[in-house]
């Protein structure tokens, strides 16, 4: 193993279920194992799951724990057998403490252990703050679009695949997952129709959506049915949850093609016969071929060529690990077409 120097680590610990605020304190500088790297974080991002894990405690965790899934920083140590990365590389990664149960795998600290198939190098001209918005949204969209148990679309390429002639519906295109789903689908050869608030119409079109509809419009249901009337459906990626389920399922039911709705939320009713509605979990791509396919085979080249844009835009909520709690609370208060981040 190539080792980190003797620096100090600081983490934002969740000491028990529903504890608030995080307890900021010292933590070890971790040693990476096989197929792992240690990253000194320069920026971390906040996702809805972080606030839900803290405030709702919906998922069993080993307390005290370290939350946080989106990190960007510099490789300071590599584990045995790692050849893809070197000390000094600038990277983003999807941190896995939610499922691993290990403190060292959490993002809300100065040093994080990352699994190499969930890490991507970033271009020299791309800031950590810009890049850190990607990982969880990217992983979740990847799971919904490409895993065999979900939409099972062909993988994205650089340059993009030729058109398949099929169309994907992305509900909530300005969200973190939606921003990634639009771009991934286009790179895989699909047209994308999406929904968003009117002030985000230009945003989702710049990401590549061919049509966008206001999800608050009283006519959005009939508008989408009309838009898909002559289309072949590649499937539906719902990035919002309950408000979208009825419409997404009905579009799938009444459109020819793949009648599968992948959703980021749970608790949905049984769909009608002929339609599948299933919840995605982004971290599952670390355990199948999708992690490597996206973080190693697709994303590095896509970022380098500029064909893939880190999105949404970062909203800097503060500096230092001490600012993580304020960032989580800011995110829970609501943001639109932005990703709350903390610079370290």
From TrEMBL:
<feature type="domain" description="Enoyl reductase (ER)">
    <location>
        <begin position="25"/>
        <end position="342"/>
    </location>
</feature>
<dbReference type="InterPro" id="IPR047122">
    <property type="entry name" value="Trans-enoyl_RdTase-like"/>
</dbReference>
<dbReference type="InterPro" id="IPR013154">
    <property type="entry name" value="ADH-like_N"/>
</dbReference>
<protein>
    <recommendedName>
        <fullName>Enoyl reductase (ER) domain-containing protein</fullName>
    </recommendedName>
</protein>
<dbReference type="GO" id="GO:0016651">
    <property type="term" value="F:oxidoreductase activity, acting on NAD(P)H"/>
</dbReference>
<dbReference type="InterPro" id="IPR011032">
    <property type="entry name" value="GroES-like_sf"/>
</dbReference>
<dbReference type="InterPro" id="IPR020843">
    <property type="entry name" value="ER"/>
</dbReference>
<dbReference type="Pfam" id="PF08240">
    <property type="entry name" value="ADH_N"/>
</dbReference>
<keyword id="KW-0560">Oxidoreductase</keyword>
<dbReference type="InterPro" id="IPR036291">
    <property type="entry name" value="NAD(P)-bd_dom_sf"/>
</dbReference>
<dbReference type="Pfam" id="PF00107">
    <property type="entry name" value="ADH_zinc_N"/>
</dbReference>
<dbReference type="InterPro" id="IPR013149">
    <property type="entry name" value="ADH-like_C"/>
</dbReference>
<comment type="similarity">
    <text>Belongs to the zinc-containing alcohol dehydrogenase family.</text>
</comment>
